[in-house]
Amino acid sequence: MRSVRVYHSTMSSSKPAYADYFGRIGEIPLYKKFIQNWREVEKFEARPDDLVIVTYPKSGTTWISEIVCMLYADGDVEKCKKDVIFNRVPYLECRNDQMMNVVQLFFFNLGVKQLKGMASPRIVKSHLPPELLPLSFWEKNCKIIYLARNAKDVAVSYYFFFLMVTANPDPGSFQDFVEKFMDGDVPYGSWYKHTKSWWEKRENPQVLFLFYEDMKEDIRKEVMKLIKFLGKETSDEIVDKIIKHTSFQEMKNNPSTNYETLPDEIMNHKVSPFMRKGIVGDWKNHFTVALNEKFDMHYEQQMKGSTLKFRTEA
After folding, report:
1. Contact of 313 with 1, CB cutoff 8 Å
2. How many domains does the chain have?
3. What domain range is 172 assigned to?
4. Is 127 a residue of the active site?
5. CATH code: domain of residue 206
6. Tens digits of per-residue pLDDT, 122-151?
7. Where in the cell is the protein located (predicted)?
């Protein structure tokens, strides 16, 4: 294992206490602001041509969203660059009063409201488990893409996301946060339950289940899966454009995907960039030997009996 850097939160002590920042919908922890809007989310009216992109947080959501946007735009890069990703792919359950107060020009305040005003076909982002996804998506036979990423890299990425999003509570040290992650004491709850519950839906023809690690290994192969699932006819030339435009470096430098259009009051990119590394196996730089052993034991217990398997190295 490579050398490990120790990170500590630099957040102000005036931040709300971690435990006070979240509520629950059933067993699932969510931001209290999101829960205030839950009735609107629950009764959301899907359209038959809606496409839903679902991930556990920090699993490649922006990457898969931009690929799908490019497919819908027939590879037109400039068309996709005309607006930021969180306007093109609204976050269904999001409610962020801070966002509206600081930056009036962004719609990121209320996902349901934003989606209602969009023309079809809509691309919808969500981090909800299948049991909380609005029933209308299932009833209208909407297509759903689920992208899964290995738990260790998710935990690392989630920690840095907590540090750079100013509205988030103090996550404590990296080890503290990983303990919370293992216990499911983070927004959207247990990674284990989330990924397994969507894995159980993989035989449903509405659902395409993809792996982040497979996308990193052979992006063309995974894009072709998307094309087939969406029933599109796409030329090799367009596929080449999509692959180039959605490479990590391209997206990191693209203001419509890197979230750097948001001010520091929302996301402090000086603490950590939103698009940080985009690799498989970065967890090795952050997990100590002891923490890794503890995580592996817990992982084995939680995933016992499941056929869902992940790669944790490139």
Report:
1. no
2. 1
3. 27-303
4. yes
5. 3.40.50.300
6. 999 999 999 999 999 999 999 999 999 999
7. Cytoplasm
